[in-house]
Structure formats: structure tokens, C-alpha cells
């Protein structure tokens, strides 16, 4: 087969015929396969394999390697999911040390803000930012980048909301690292009288429902039919099962009008953003009676970030979804939103949010899977005013090919996705935009070995 010279093309036709036969043939279970193509060629020459045997072994080898590559890809995705869901040792250390500092150092417990600045917390002449997080390091970057980018930092007020276990550490950080002339308030969820079980019944159910908790905290590969899915779909499903999606901190933004009854407008920031430009012009945008100023995510060319419509988030085979929603309706982004709380208080947004969450729970999460954005897309329908895309660049947490020039120009860059900049799986070329706001001279940062990459 290897030595014959055939100018008529007959040899090629014969070999093509053999390949077509082998394509549908059963591969014997006991077929011994070489480890490399070189070894296959050597065995063929030494054992004088006929063309059919050669082709059958080649096919079996290729299928074996394809299975191994596929299994390796799924294992990589699982490992990345676990890395994204875990708390890095350095960040855990930072929280523990600052919590200990709160109990032993009176300076770490000082009132935030100081008594003479308390009126500013409800003064609408200031620019009020709300940040909800249990990540102290991430919070420090959001606050530092906002203030350093502000043209009038003395007009900036930050309302940092965290959970009960993180409150002492978060308070310690901002008490020991003042951001004057800006103002910071740190509050725990437990300190809001309004956040009772009566007012957030659905979220109590989400956090406490055993099947829901198992979905987000259980074995994410058990029962999964990996042979019938692609790595990309599997990755999306894993991201949808991040435990953060059943955290009250993640749902807290839907209660802003009640949590801040005296404020007219706020900018809500996720903890995985970096501010690179003065955001005060956001308060000057005419929302035209709408509640939510947000960047739309359906008018870009890339599939991952800016080509999102309702069909990307909802299961339109579910009758309630099909009857009430348009699959082509444009989606918008959470992460950097300007909210008109006065207009919001005149709507039923919170009630709609709760109602749809209840329906999804009753449907065993068959209406949508991914977190807090889908119910918000429904609840805010008719209440969103599109703002210029340059205000908010998304995808730095899963889009390795993010254009660096676009990153440099954006007012807010958002590391949404698994590859957060504080994780080892973060993209090296995008991390410096975040690390430039980490205070590496701080003793707590140094002692917890949170090192600049």
C-alpha cells in the first residue's frame, strides 16, 4: 500500500472505499492501540497490516484521543468553576485579620462616618454609590478607583453593605484606611430593620429550600450527560450554578428604594468593577421618567458579551415565558446602573420581581437558571433607559480577547465571569487595570501575601 506507484488513481479510490467501510464498522473491544502515530506506522510496517487494519486502528486512536481531550476539557471547566467559587487564602486571611482587629483595636471600631458627617448620608446634593459585597479586597478596589477617578471626591458618598460575618472586617478596613474627603458608610444586612422575613419571603425561601441549595451547592457533574453537550454549554451551566446567586447580598439591589428611603438617585456598583472615569455626569442623565439607566447588551458583534437578548436568558418552551416575553427583546447589564429611586417608588418593580421568582421556584427553576438578572429583566420591563455603552464595558472575566484599547476608554470595566482579577485564573493582561488600585503597602495586604501579579 505504501510502496506502490499508481498514476491511474485506483489506489486512492480503493483506499477511500476502505475508509468508508471502516467509518461504520464496529471497533473490537480488545483492539490494542498504539500510543502515537509514529508507533502506528512502525507497527504497520513490522506486522504488514492491510489497509483496512491500518484504517481501523487509526480511527480507534482518533476517537480515543478525542474522548480524552473532551474529558480533559470538562475537567478543566470543573476545576475552573471550583476555583471561581472558592475564597482565595489571601482574601480569607484578610477578612480574619481585620475581624480580629475590630475586636482588639478601638480605631477599627470608630463610627463610620464620623458624627458630624452623618447628615451627608441622606443629602441628595452628594453622589451616592451603593456597593453590596462580602469581599473586602474587591470593595477596597471599587471605592479607591471611584474616588481616584472622581473630579469632586468630596461629593462622593459610599454605602457599603455586607453580611453579618463580614461586617467587622469590612468596617475595620474602611475605619483604618479612610478615603477622605469622600465618605464611607458600612452596614451589615442585619442592621437594616426593613430586611425582615415578611419583606423578603421569596429570598428566604431561595436560601432555605433544600432542592435549591442542592442545585447550587451540590455535585455539579452528577447526572450530567456530558456526551450530549458541548464544553461551552457546560461552562454556561456551571456559571449558572454559582452559589452567589442565592445570596441575599446579590438580590439586595431590588430593595434600594426601601433601604435608602431618603435618597433620590444612586449608582449601584458590583464588586467586580473598576472605575476609570468621573461618574458624576451619570446624575445629569435625563432618564425620561424611567427607573434604571443601563447599558444595553444586544447591539454588539461578539456572542459572549454584547449579543444578549431575552432568548439567551429564558426558557421559551415554558408557557408562562412564551406568553409574556419576546425572545428578541434587548437585554441590559447589571453591574453599573443609575437608579432613580423616586420614580422607582411609584412602580411595582419589587412586587413583579417577587412574583416571577415565586413562579420560577414553583417551576423547579425551569423558567431560567442564571441568577438575579432574569427576574430583573422582567421586573424592569418598560422602566429602563439605555445609556451610552462607553459607560460600562463588560466581559473581562470570561472574554480573554477583550480589546485593550476599549478597556482603556471605558468609564467602568466589569470583570463579570469566572476569571476575577483577584483569582489565579484571572487573565494576566487584564489584571493590571484592577491591581493598580490595590494598596500593596498596607500591612494587612502584605501580611496576607496578597501579591501583585
TrEMBL record:
Its EC number(s): 2.4.1.-
Entry keywords, A to Z: Cell wall biogenesis/degradation, Glycosyltransferase, Golgi apparatus, Transferase
Family: Belongs to the glycosyltransferase 8 family.
PANTHER family, per the entry: GALACTURONOSYLTRANSFERASE 13-RELATED, GALACTURONOSYLTRANSFERASE 4-RELATED
Protein's UniProt keywords contain Glycosyltransferase: yes
Domain of life: Eukaryota
Topological type in the membrane: Single-pass type II membrane protein
UniProt-listed InterPro entries: GAUT, Glyco_trans_8, Nucleotide-diphossugar_trans
Cellular compartment(s): Golgi apparatus membrane
Metabolic or biological pathway, per its Swiss-Prot or TrEMBL entry: Glycan metabolism; pectin biosynthesis
One Pfam family matching this protein: Glyco_transf_8
Chief location: Golgi
Protein name (database record): Hexosyltransferase
Annotated organism of origin: Rhodamnia argentea
